[in-house]
Specification:
single chain; alpha/beta; eight-stranded parallel β-sheet; two-stranded antiparallel ribbon; 9 helices; 10 strands; about 35% helix
């Protein structure tokens, strides 16, 4: 079952895109990865408290960007959404290979197997699936629709200037699921690389650029490149706030403002991608999910103005997340 055109598929049901409010396009309520040992997001109570802090900082909705095989917990995500009032759009798909153990079944699954799993999550109901801890790597969802929240976004992860065989199979499967449902697509770009190549690969399997959000494009804070990508129609995922080890927030604010000036104002999305227990306040870390709303957005508003912030937080994510058949 596909969402009606203009509707967004959330873990509590389909909603009108115009009703989302302010959207954080990229966070993680649950995550488990061999790349992040000791930094698992696996405590439902703590993740719920963190979601409430995001809400209190001014966001009404978030995209949980954890795809298959990385500790995603669909039923718990829906409980958090219901308990906090935060609208949550869940993700299906596959990350880059480094996020999985070498023997993980997702890395060797065929295009058809991946497409079947992705479509299951989007249309029937999401289960963890393709998980080495599961006796059945391709389980069917619970037939009770109230026990099977559905995903609303497809995702594929690429390496640093790399689209390997596993990624190409995932891209093909994402294309198949997108053509059948019209669901939006997110691409993980490692350090912002291979953005044009990602759009080319997705176009080859039937995914138009204006259905794609390029996550981490701001890890390469080049407004000229971003304007080129926006001109192709793609959405630009800015999610690097609070990473002062790489550069200050001012670099991202300046890049976003210049990208908007060059014609990309209708393509930029904003998220935090905090994604680690040591950076979630509810898990004992800092700065937490509230950083984006309390400290980054006011500075962006001062630099870029109210209209750009309105587009980045409301209009653009609504346009990206709305399903099209």
């Amino acid at each position: 079952m596909s969402a009606a055109p203009g509707r967004v598929r959330t873990v509590t049901g389909d909603v009108d895109a115009a009703d989302l409010g302010s959207v954080n396009y990229h966070e993680h309520l649950f995550q488990r990865s061999p790349l992040l040992p000791g930094d698992d997001l696996d405590d439902e109570d703590a993740s719920s408290r963190e979601a409430a802090e995001l809400r209190d900082s001014g966001f009404a909705a978030l995209v949980d960007a954890t795809p298959l095989g990385l500790g995603r917990r669909p039923a718990a995500i829906r409980r958090i959404s219901r308990g906090t009032g935060v609208i949550v759009v869940m993700t299906t798909g596959a990350h880059r290979r480094e996020h999985y153990a070498e023997d993980h079944p997702l890395l060797t699954a065929s295009e058809d197997e991946l497409a079947t799993a992705f479509l299951r999550d989007l249309t029937l109901g999401a289960v963890e699936g393709l998980d080495p801890d599961s006796a059945d790597p391709y389980p069917a969802p619970d037939p009770d629709p109230d026990a099977a929240p559905r995903a609303g976004v497809l995702k594929v992860g690429l390496g640093y200037w790399r689209i390997d065989d596993a990624a190409r199979r995932a891209i093909a499967a994402v294309g198949a699921a997108h053509r059948e449902t019209g669901a939006p697509v997110m691409v993980h770009l490692e350090h912002g690389t291979a953005a044009h190549e990602a759009l080319d690969a997705l176009a080859a399997v039937g995914v138009a650029a204006d259905r794609v959000a390029l996550a981490h494009v701001d890890r390469n804070p080049d407004p000229g490149l971003h304007a080129e990508l926006a001109a192709r129609g793609s959405f630009l995922g800015y999610d690097g706030a609070a990473r002062a080890r790489d550069w200050p927030d001012s670099v991202l604010i300046d890049c976003l403002t210049e990208t908007a000036r060059r014609g990309g104002a209708d393509r930029v999305l904003l998220g935090g991608d905090v994604a680690r227990a040591t950076r979630y306040r509810a898990y004992g870390g800092i700065p937490g999910l509230r950083y984006l709303g309390e400290r980054f957005v006011p500075r962006l508003r001062d630099a870029a103005g109210d209209d750009v912030v309105e587009r980045v937080l409301r209009r653009n994510p609504a346009a990206w997340l709305a399903w099209r058949v």
